[in-house]
Amino acid sequence: MARTALITGITGQDGAYLTEFLLSKGYEVHGLARRSSTSDLNVSRLKWLGIEKDVRIVDGNLTDLSGLARTMREVKPDEVYNLAAQSFVKASWQQPILTGNVTGIGVTNVLEALRLEAPQARFYQASSSEMFGLVREPIQSEATPFHPRSPYAVAKLYGHWITINYRESFGLHASSGILFNHESPLRGIEFVTRKVTDAVARIKRGMIDELRLGNIDAKRDWGHSKDYVRAMWLMLQQDEPDDFVIATGRTTTVRDMCRIAFEHVGLKMDDYLVVDPGLFRPAEVDILLGNPAKAKAEMGWEATISLEEMIREMVDADLERHRSQ
What b/e sequence results for 230-265 when a residue is b if at least 16 CB atoms lie within 10 Å of its CB, and e otherwise? Predict the structure, then answer.
């Protein structure tokens, strides 16, 4: 029989690529999605990949324990991937309580529903490199101390530790992936990489004449979402649950990432890029650089898509979006 997976946050970037990956492995995929006041659900990313009809969408919310328990009971998942969150760092300063309730406490609700209704299922928690924050070591590994610098990162750290606690307290096969920044053409427009590639595409087509950013000297370890969802799956195939840093091992400034995007369309970055102090974070994370050695040694995982390939793919996708519009 095909294995069954339940994905929270299935309509997001990672949820869509993970769905595509699991379907290729023969899984039956169910996705938990939060509905708003309209009856329409945004499945545009699933449609982009041509798989929206291959999954079953279940109404649900990470803040509703009873609904989560009912979903676990009905779906009977073999694997649960918790990708849902209030995932925009900037918004977490404006909505710190919502971020805490969804991105933090929501993880407890999923774990408790799992413990009560599907304790045999394997669980994946989407942790974040933002938990390292004010970094204590130049290269961050599973042993690096955390120092979160945003309400989002604090909430993610709670979710990370409650996953470890449920693993140790109840014997659940619960693992966390400490994922560094990962992007794709499906990334939301509010994230810096997509903000850059979309702006470059619009500048190239004469729709706008500048790109405004905050701290362009911040450094990030960027990978492709397709590589990273493969790591999520690998974690749940291990005999024992554990936590893994998932990263490329290469860090790049926002400035250099912008240069790659502009050069791809034959433009000079300095002619269009404007640094806006109003876009700086209240507390900046200056550099993130992950050490994926454990993931490679224990799971055989490593990134296969370079930053340059990813940015070019994203620019091309945004050019096509604006061309078709």
Answer: bbbbbbbeeeebbbbbbbbbebbebbebbbbbbbbb
